[in-house]
Design goal:
Bound molecules: pyridoxal-5'-phosphate
Pfam families: Beta_elim_lyase (PF01212)
Strand content: 15-25%
Radius of gyration: 20 Å
Shape: globular
Order of helices and strands: EHHEHEHHEHEHEHHEEHHHEEHEEH
Largest sheet: 7 strands, mixed
Strand order of the largest sheet: 2-8-7-6-5-3-4
Family: Belongs to the threonine aldolase family.
Number of strands: 12
GO biological process, one term: glycine biosynthetic process
InterPro entries: ArAA_b-elim_lyase/Thr_aldolase, Low_specificity_L-TA-like, PyrdxlP-dep_Trfase, PyrdxlP-dep_Trfase_major, PyrdxlP-dep_Trfase_small
Number of domains: 2
Structural class: alpha/beta
Number of helices: 14
Keywords: Lyase, Pyridoxal phosphate
Length: 334
């Protein structure tokens, strides 16, 4: 039975074209700066996103960590959403490894952080307080795309308050495809951006941190410190480059599939949050566990959560969505 895995867009397997690109990759020792494929990926992405430099790292968690640590010193503070990945899902790394104090604030329904609330959280220059240094945003945020005019406002706001602005752009390309804009229109507002290659883009491993030469130079030192200096990493970078060159436009298909899934579930009577990109959130309440096992028997992998997140990706087709909806319909009847 073919498996349809809706738990995350991290589960994608490399496509045949991607495997060929990996096979053909020119390699070297990247800790010596001698892996041409890694260098090509870093330069390619930095160029496209409007930054001076890029740094290839194994995970988005490391990419965000290095970004935060390159911007902030010990005893500095960053302002971040209560539900943001860098705050909630990265093991508290910024605090543990960077001695950076997070100041979380409640996010808004559209995925943004209210700049008035951010302003109220900024601490004045006083030895009682941590030094507020950075604002971190996430885009897409739980599948929601931050409006471009909000990003412009956040940029102006951070300039005014002397803060740096970091983007956890794990799903930057879902946002740019959804808006129909060049990703540069998003990234131009930020001092640093972390992009995941291993989500909807379909690479097996890897993220890239982009920023100024100075920031990336610091991040490179930190990467070595946390054990992220990889040797013949071009094998992985080649997969990332392939993803960026061949698997960006197709994200629109994931978005269409997510729409269809959302509409189908609504037709079955589920309360479904508005779908913008590749994530569908449905309220399944106490049925979460029974639903998970019922659909598992039909080849559909779900997480068990009352607010159920389903994610579409490279390995989920429009027909798969029909199969999933049939499973939900049968569950309703059971
Ligand atoms: C997946 C993800 C990351 C990084 O996760 P890794 O598993 O460490 O690559 C960072 N931010 C967001 C929003 C993510 O979804």
């Amino acid at each position: 039975m073919p498996i349809i895995d809706l738990r995350s867009d991290t589960v994608t397997l490399p496509t045949p074209g991607m495997r060929e690109a990996m096979q053909a990759a020119e390699l070297g020792d990247d800790v010596y700066g001698e892996d041409p494929s890694v260098t090509r990926l870093e330069t390619y992405l930095a160029d496209k996103l409007g930054f001076a430099a890029g740094l290839f790292v194994p995970t988005g968690t490391m990419s965000n960590l290095l970004g935060l640590m390159a911007h902030c010193q010990r005893g500095d503070e960053y302002i971040v959403g209560q539900q943001a990945h860098t705050y909630k899902y990265e093991g508290g790394g910024a605090a543990v490894l960077g001695s950076i104090q997070p100041q979380p604030i409640e996010g808004e329904a559209d995925g943004s952080l209210d700049l008035a609330k951010v302003a109220a959280a900024i601490k004045m220059d006083d030895f009682h307080f941590a030094r507020t240094r950075l604002l971190a945003l996430e885009n897409t945020m739980q599948g929601k795309v931050l409006p471009l005019d909000y990003l412009a406002a956040a940029r102006e706001f951070t300039h005014k308050h002397g803060l740096s602005l970091h983007l956890d752009g794990a799903r930057l390309y879902n946002a740019s495809v959804k808006l129909g804009v060049d990703p540069l229109q998003i990234t131009r507002h930020f001092d640093s951006v972390s992009v995941c290659l291993s989500k909807g883009l379909g690479a097996p491993v890897g993220s890239v941190l982009c920023g100024s030469d100075e920031l990336i130079c610091k991040a490179r030192r930190l990467r070595k410190m946390v054990g992220g200096g990889m040797r013949q990493a071009g094998l992985l970078a080649a997969a990332g480059l392939y993803a960026l060159e061949h698997q960006v436009e197709r994200l629109a298909q994931d978005h269409a599939n997510a729409q269809a899934l959302g509409e189908g579930l609504r037709a079955l009577g589920y309360s479904v949050e508005p779908v913008q990109t590749n994530m569908v959130y449905a309220q399944v309440g106490e049925q979460a566990n029974s639903l998970k096992s019922f659909l598992a028997e039909r080849g559909v992998k779900l997480t068990a959560a009352p607010r159920l997140r389903m994610v579409t990706h490279l390995d989920v087709s429009a027909d798969d969505i029909k199969h999933v909806l049939k499973g939900f319909a049968d569950f309703k009847q059971s």
